[in-house]
Design brief:
Layout (H helix, E strand, L loop, with lengths): L1 H29 L4 E17 L2 E18 L6 H25 L6 H17 L4 E2 L2 E2 L1 H13 L1
Antiparallel strand pairs: 1-2, 3-4
Cofactor: Zn(2+)
Protein name: Site-2 protease family protein
Subcellular location: Membrane
Length: about 150
Amino acid sequence: MLELLSCLLFVVAPLGLFIHELGHAAVGLWNGAERSHLSLGVGPLLCKCKIKRLTVHLHYIFIIGGHSLNEKEADFTSKQQAMISLGGPLSNAVCAAVLYMSDLPQQSHVLQLLYFFNLYLALVNMIPFRLKGRESDGCRFLKGLTKTMG
C-alpha cells in the first residue's frame, strides 16, 4: 500500500500533471505562441530544459501543481484561449483513453493509477469553478467560448 501511495505521489501525479500542462503548451504553440513555459511544482528551481519554443521548469517540490504560460505578441483570440484551456484536460482524456484501450492498466497497478489519475484530471478540470481567485480550465473554456459566440 505504501509503495502504491509513493508511486502515486512521486511518479503518477507529476506525470499526469506534465501531460496536462503539455497539452496547454502544445495547443498554445499550435495557435501561434512565440514562447511557452511549462512549470511543474513549487519551490526553488531544480532544473530547466528548453526545446525550441518550449521551456520546461522543474521545481524541487514537483509533486504539487503545475502551470503553463503561452506568450504571444498579439493577444490570443477568444477562440484560441478556449482551445488552449481545453488542451490540458483533452490531453489527459486522450492519455486515459489510450491506456484504457491498450488494456495495460489490467497488467500494472502503476498504469492503473495513471489511467485513473488522468481521467480524474480530465473530468475535474472541465468543471467550471473559481477557487481563491483562480479559474478552472472549464471556466476559462466557457468564458472563451461565450466571447467567441458573441
